[in-house]
Amino acid sequence: MTRPHWLFGDQLGPHFARPRGEGAPDRDAPLVMIESRAVLRRRRFHRAKAHLLLSAMRHRAAELGDRVTYVRAETYREGLHKAVGGSATTVHHPTSRAALALTESLDNVTVLPARGFLVPHEAFGRWVADHGGGKGRGKGGRGGEHLRQEDFYRWVRRDHDLLMDGDQPAGGQWNYDHDNREPPPRDARTLDAPAPYRPREDEIDAEVRHDLDRWERAGEVSFVGRDGPRRLPATRREALAALRRFVSHRLPAFGPYEDAMLTDDPVMSHSVLSSSLNLGLLDPAECVERAEKAWREGKAPLRSVEGYIRQVAGWREYMWQLYWHFGEDYRHRNALGHRRALPDWWLELDADAVTAHCLRTVLAQVRDTGWTHHIPRLMVLGSYALQRGWDPAALTDWFHRCFVDGYDWVMLTNVVGMSQYADGGRMTTKPYTSGGAYIDRMSDLCGGCAYRPGTRVGPRGCPYTAGYWAFMDRHRSALAHNPRTARAVHGLDRLSDLEELLEQERARGDAPP
Is residue 99 within 8 Å of 39, Cβ to Cβ? Predict the structure, then answer.
């Protein structure tokens, strides 16, 4: 008897329903999708995120037609019972620990291997063992302390024959990161790159908007952020169009400026495909293969192609694997003892309350679209939170809720490890924070700001510059022995205005800067 196959809302591409390889759904299996209202009640999500998720699920159900049973229910458990009763059912490995625990608790549900990633869990486990790792997936082992993302990335390149010429990296080097850190062109307001693909809304989007409005008016759900025309793909066809446009028109200029920021050009030459990948509309293999093909055909430079492949095959894969490898207790890590609550203006995405131009601009981008690229996330949002000592678990939840591409597996390691250094260095070699000079060098965001990046105290004192030194002072004993922060810590004693700076930061508290 053919078993029904359950699709979660981030398993929307054809590769999740296709009977290929070992551990695949049964051929011609009837499909089940469940729209759970409890998911939207559980957290205060960004309105654009809720719209994109429901639009993508309902579009997929419309495509599947009679093959799918689409159930709207309070919970997944209730919805699955309505759809299949007690029948044996399959589902691909979910992307969160909570969802995996649910599926494993249900009678007659068989969890198949994960799809939507390049590296199987078992292969990563073998790689960890070969690199001196600990106990492995889900055991909370300490093996990650000896793992390096660069080693993992090179292994993935070799194993999948990505940008390889025989057993050597294409072009003779693995990593073009050093070449891909250029500031934006002087006096440029935009990169003049062709705009990313923008979908057109349809009647399904109208229905989603109507439902979200109705539920919010009834007090059943609550959102942050602004509603607006859907900006991102909700179907496989739209996602492929967005991928084609990126590879053909935007990839060539991606590499040099991937770390740069411009006030009037929030997307720069970034792919803006993360939500499509994380909804399962695109498979990472097709993304990196198309990028490599563009280089081999002379349509994109190697530095841009390698930079993009590094993001997808390197960083994205690494975050997915570490989410499971580090264990459940990783989300509670707080090596720096940061426990301050996130202030209301931050939680409400109240960019208008902020004076600092960089933070005001980036927070407005999040409010309006639910998206910014990785450098504003890390060096504007994350850096500010780290300097203020905000609770990393609360910040992880905020990123999860407020970004259209945010999921538990995405944000946990990125925020706890990369952004907030809350794991004490298991993922990174230093805290990622800086004074205003970095933002000034890599953007135009300091132009016209009420503060000056080189000024620490007084009415023109930059909150990032002051916050950086206050952070270093607060954690000087922990950071003095780190080779990458020791010089900054030793420089504290040369700051003649340190006491004034610290008093100013205490007075600022968590008021919007």
Answer: no
